Amino acid sequence: MKKECVAMLLAGGIGKRLGQLTKDMAKPAVPFGGRYRIIDFVLSNCLQSNINTVGVLTQYQPLTLHKHIGVGKPWDLDRMDDGLAILSPFTQHNGGNWYEGTADAVTKNIHYIDQFDPQYVLILSGDHIYHMDYNELLTHHKATNADVTISVMEVPWKETSRFGIIHMNTDYEITSFEEKPLKTKSNLASMGIYVFKWSVLKECLQYDHNNAYSDHDFGKDILPYMLLNQKKMCAFPFRGYWKDVGTIQSYWDAHMDLLNGQFLLQLDQKDWMTYSHDNNHPPQLITETGSVHQSLINNGCIVSGMVESSVLFENVQVGNNSIVKNSVLHPGVRVGRHVSLDRVIVQEDVIIPDYTNINVPLSDEPIVLSKEFFIETQKVGGMKS
C-alpha cells in the first residue's frame, strides 16, 4: 500500500532527568494531565492530521508503553494494512541489537518504511506535550521543496543548552545548526519534529550507518551531515504551546500550565481532542468536608480534604483535614488524614500516612514521592517537612 507520508515515532528514550518517574517505564508512558500518558498527545496529533501509518520505535522499559498503546485503537490506528506498528529492537533478523541512537532506530526499520514507498517521512518524538496539525508542516515542506523541514520555536535563553539550536535566513532556510550549545546567538530550538524527503533521508541514513565515528543521532549526525552536503534545510516556525517534559521541573510546570485559564493547550478542545483509553471508574465525589479550587479531578476520586491548584488522576483519595496544593497525584494514590502536601508529584498507588507533612519551597525543584521514598523515610526514623 503506497503512502504519501509515513510517521516514525521515537519512543524508546530513558528519560534519566525524570528520575523516579522513569525508573520502571519509558518516558512516553509517564502519566500526564489527569487521564493521559505523554505519548497520547503525539498519537492524537497523528489522528487529527490523518497520518494513519505510524511506526512506534520502543526500547527502554517498554512493558507499560506497549500495554498502553496496544493495537492503537484509541487513535484509530488498529488497521490491517497500515495503522500502528510497534518496532522494537528484538524484531530484527540479526538477533536484536539495541538501537544505538535515534537515527539508527530508523535505519534498522528502513524495510518497514520501504513497504509503503512514501515520498515523505515524518520523524516525531513520543515525549512532548503539544497540539499540532502535521499537514501544515507538510504543506510548508512541499512549498519550499526542502530536503528536510524542522519544526522550530523560540525557547527561554537559559534553556538553549537543552536543545538543538537553529539559525535561519529570511526565507526560512537553515544556515547553521548547533546541538545543545553552551553559548549561542539564537534561541530558536528544534522541536525534534522533522519531515524528510524519504529518498534523501534514506541515503543519509545508509551513509551514517557505515560511519564508525557517528553517534547515529539525528541532531548530532544526520542534520549536520545534510548541512555540510548542502542539502536544502528549512525551518517551520511553530507558535502554539509545546513543552519538552524532560525534567521534574518541566513536568510539574506543564501540569501547572494546565490549570492556567490562558493555557493554549486546553484538554477540552472539541476541535482537537486528545485521546486515550477510558477507565470505567465512577464519577468523582467531593464529600461535605472536601473542597476543590482550580484543580483537575478525575473519575473515581474521593476528596474529603482541601485540594488547590493540583491535578488528581483517577481513583485518588484525599482524607479528612488534609491539604493538597500545587501537586500532581498519579492514579490510585491514597492521602491519609491531616496530611499537608505542597509542590510534590506522587507516583501511582502510593499510600501517604496520616499526619505526613511535605512542603517544598518555591526555590527548590518539586520532589517525587514513591513507595521507596516512604520505605527509606521509615528506616531513618520518620517524615521531615
Automatic annotation (TrEMBL):
> Which reactions appear under catalytic activity for this entry?
alpha-D-glucose 1-phosphate + ATP + H(+) = ADP-alpha-D-glucose + diphosphate
Nucleotidyl transferase domain boundaries: 7-260
Q: Which residues bind alpha-D-glucose 1-phosphate?
A: Y99, G164, E179, K180, S190
User: In terms of domain of life, where is this protein from?
Assistant: Bacteria
Keywords attached to this entry: ATP-binding, Carbohydrate metabolism, Glycogen biosynthesis, Glycogen metabolism, Nucleotide-binding, Nucleotidyltransferase, Transferase
EC number, as in UniProt = 2.7.7.27
Q: In which pathway does it act?
A: Glycan biosynthesis; glycogen biosynthesis
State the Gene Ontology BP annotations: glycogen biosynthetic process
- Annotated GO MF terms: ATP binding; glucose-1-phosphate adenylyltransferase activity
- A Pfam family found in this protein is NTP_transferase
| Residues carrying the site annotation Could play a key role in the communication between the regulatory and the substrate sites | Q59, W98
CDD domains attached to this UniProt entry: ADP_Glucose_PP, LbH_G1P_AT_C
Give every Glucose-1-phosphate adenylyltransferase/Bifunctional protein GlmU-like C-terminal hexapeptide domain span: 288-360
Assembly and partners?
Homotetramer.
Query: Sorted alphabetically, which HAMAP family does this protein's record hold?
Result: GlgC
Q: What does this protein do?
A: Involved in the biosynthesis of ADP-glucose, a building block required for the elongation reactions to produce glycogen. Catalyzes the reaction between ATP and alpha-D-glucose 1-phosphate (G1P) to produce pyrophosphate and ADP-Glc.
By sequence similarity, the record places it as follows: Belongs to the bacterial/plant glucose-1-phosphate adenylyltransferase family.
Q: What is this protein called?
A: Glucose-1-phosphate adenylyltransferase
Gene symbol here is glgC
